[in-house]
Amino acid sequence: MYGLKKEPQDKKFAFDLEREIQEKPTHGKKLLERAEKNILEIKKQLREGIEANQFDRLGILLHGYSALQKVLKKAMK
User: Fold this and answer.
1) Terminal Cα distance for the chain, rounded
2) d(Cα 22, Cα 9) in Å, to the nearest integer?
3) Residues 6 or more apart in contact with residue 66 via CB below 8 angstroms
4) CB-CB contact of 38 with 72 (8 Å)
5) For 10, phi and psi rounded to 5 degrees?
6) Under a CB-based contact definition with an 8 Å cutoff, are residues 48 and 60 in contact?
């Protein structure tokens, strides 16, 4: 019947980014450095003070780059 075939459990799902980092470890390091640089720049702009709508947008970007940084660190292990 449909869906009852057992597939081997050794297949592990990997995202495109994870596969890229496993194939080219230097690419992962470059992405991590770029993310860290952008995080520092965003934090600098937030400290200097900007308009309210820009503050929210930069906050969202900061959370996104932080999440990317965590994913890259886990994928590089």
Assistant:
1) 40
2) 21
3) 39
4) no
5) -75, -10
6) no
**Amino acid in the structure at residue 49:** G
Q: What is the pLDDT of residues 14-59, one digit of tens each?
A: 788 888 888 888 998 999 999 999 999 999 999 988 888 899 999 9
Contacts 24+ apart (CB under 8 A), 60-66: 65/35, 65/38, 65/39, 66/39
For residue 64, the surrounding DSSP H or E stretch is helix 52-76
Three-state secondary structure call for residue 42: helix
For the entire predicted model, the pTM comes to 0.74
Show me where the domains of the chain are located: 21-76
